[in-house]
Design brief:
13 strands, 184 residues, five-stranded antiparallel sheet
């Protein structure tokens, strides 16, 4: 497995070893000791919930985070292709307002590790995408929060112009509208 550091502290791109032949392929999507050696999920953290979503082309989900029970996420696309984003929305961080975007596809088998405290979102590039998340904390609806996908201060270069959004995502505030105590 190859681990690639990004400009955001702790956010890592993982390229698992893929063994393929005429029959198809095999890869380990998680192996506890190997991932712990790479710093995933991080000291004192463990994966406690797995999620799977299916979305169609043009859907954008995010940018989400939880104030309480902040979730670290190991994400990948099992089917299709997504543009996945981690954004630093912590005003005390030296990388505040910085983001990284990575294409995760069923062909490149890449994963993205997003430690607790970052905002996360993705958009679907293929006709359909199945997206998997391994999370370090349970979903906590009372502390579910987020930032508008098109926030001008973050200036994320999404590879689509008019995404399909949920009502919740359509109503997320701009970063400048969120009080400090409501950010990670």
């Amino acid at each position: 497995m190859r681990v690639i550091e990004t400009k955001l502290p702790g956010v890592l791109i993982i390229e698992p070893k893929v063994f393929g032949d005429a029959r198809g392929f095999f890869l380990e999507t998680f192996q506890k000791e190997r991932y712990i050696d790479a710093g995933i999920p991080g000291e004192g953290l463990e994966f406690v919930q797995d999620n799977h979503s299916r979305s169609s082309k043009g859907v954008l989900r995010g940018l989400h985070f939880q104030l309480e029970n902040s979730q670290g996420k190991l994400v990948s696309a099992g089917t299709g292709a997504v543009f996945d984003v981690a954004a630093d929305v912590n005003p005390d961080s030296p990388t505040f307002k910085k983001w990284i975007g990575v294409e995760l596809t069923e062909k490149n088998h890449r994963q993205l590790w997003i430690p607790p405290g970052y905002a996360h979102g993705f958009c679907v590039l293929s006709e359909i995408a199945d997206f998997q998340y391994k999370c370090t904390a349970l979903y906590h609806p009372e502390s579910d929060s987020g930032i508008a996908w098109d926030d001008s201060e973050l200036a994320i270069d999404w590879p689509l112009e008019n995404p399909q959004l949920s009502e919740k995502d359509r109503s997320l505030p701009a970063l400048s509208e969120v009080k400090r105590d409501q950010l990670p």
